[in-house]
């Protein structure tokens, strides 16, 4: 791995770090080290790096802003790719908005809303990057990324770069083709919004931001919603009905504010969080005969994202 790290450093592809603790890159502040972490600042740098990584036969995993991510305590084998500064450009042409994968979803939503463009209000309180949002079809308040996306530019494992349309991305609830069928990294996304009344749009987005502040524990390190909603039921409500709010294992605790959030209440490990997840699954199934599935992405040496 040292040889690959030195080769990547010589290539001038942006920052290259070895044995980098990933707790510094996740909102729940948990995660062991990456063998190598790179932060390329342009698509060409990323493409060069990907070619070298693939030639070395080394695993790679892409992360965004770490807001829906649990990295295991053993860390991540191989190379972790995080889009660096320079891959966070936004271009607005009327109702068509093009954003790089490294752009903050919240900042983009606020940006377009101030310009009187409607369609992204639902995402005003969702932390994370555009790349991560497309990857998992992020959504809230009855809408999601698939409702506004036209196409996305993807770098695939073999180094090829290709535009995929919304239909080709095969979006469904919190999933896309990029998660398993065709792993890749979102370089850019093109959204089609609609022009509207700026004050009304800003009021709407602020309402959603306030709702999140009032109902979700973002004052603690957390990873967002842990479970998918087993519709027509809601994960948080089932967990609350099961009497699990406030339940803790080690440093991991189910939020007393929202049942579908696990917070790092103090030096929690990924093992603590996983044990709490399993406890919730077992309890909810026993009480309500409902199988809970995780929404948070769990990656690490026992569960690699890409190969």
Notes on the protein architecture:
Helix content is 27%, strand content 25%. It is globular and about 55 Å long. The strands form 6 sheets. The chain has a 5-stranded antiparallel sheet with strand order 6-7-13-11-12, covered by helices on one side. It has a 4-stranded mixed sheet with strand order 1-2-5-3, covered by helices on one side. Strands 15-16-17 form a 3-stranded antiparallel sheet. The two termini are 16 Å apart. It is built from 7 helices and 18 strands. The chain is α+β, with helices and mostly antiparallel strands. The model is unreliable at 303-307 (pLDDT under 50).
Which tags fit this structure?
alpha+beta; 18 strands; 307 residues
Structural class: alpha+beta
Task: State the helix count.
Answer: 7
- The residue ranges in which pLDDT falls below 50 over 5 or more consecutive positions are 303-307
Sheet with the most strands: spatial strand order: 6-7-13-11-12
What global shape is seen?
Answer: globular
Please indicate the percent range of residues in DSSP E strands (runs of 2 or more).
15-25%
Mean pLDDT: 93
Largest sheet: 5 strands, antiparallel
Q: What is the rounded Rg?
A: 19 Å
What is the terminal separation in angstroms?
A: 16 Å
Helix-strand string: HEEHEEEEEHEHEEEEEEHHEEEHE
User: How much helix, percentage-wise, in residues?
Assistant: 25-40%
Strand tally is 18
